[in-house]
């Protein structure tokens, strides 16, 4: 059975919504792109466009803002509407999620 955070992220992908959450002590604003499992654990590929992270954020649209996230380490997960944000290299094959449940459609 998927976690509550997984279910929120899944619906956010389908609706193309923004996800905000705490991850490793950082508040992050992200666009979810891919959700599923890696090695049996819930994983998601996000494009982070706001908030903070240990590695910092590059300018908007940068390929350096992709984040592979363990869903189980997200807290205070919330979903909201907002403009679409991503990087131009989304078509590049991802390795964050082995068993894809849902991906954003363009």
Helix and strand content put the structural class at mainly beta
- Contiguous helical run count: 1
Regions with pLDDT < 50 over 5+ consecutive residues?
A: none
Query: What is the C-alpha radius of gyration, as a whole number of Å?
Result: 12 Å
Provide mean pLDDT, rounded. 92
Overall structural domain count:
1
Write a brief structural summary:
This protein is mostly beta strands. 11% of the residues lie in helices and 44% in strands.
What does this structure look like?
The chain is mainly β and about 110 residues long. The chain has one domain. About 10% of the residues lie in helices and about 45% in strands. The chain has one helix spanning about 5-15, and strands at about 20-25, 25-40, 40-50, 65-70, 75-80, 100-105. Strands 1, 2, 3, 4, 5 and 6 form a 6-stranded antiparallel beta sheet that branches.
Feature tags:
globular, mainly beta, 106 residues, 11% helix
Secondary structure: elements and pairs:
Elements lengths: L3 H12 L2 E6 L2 E13 L2 E11 L14 E5 L3 E7 L18 E5 L3
Antiparallel strand pairs: 1-2, 1-5, 2-3, 2-6, 3-4
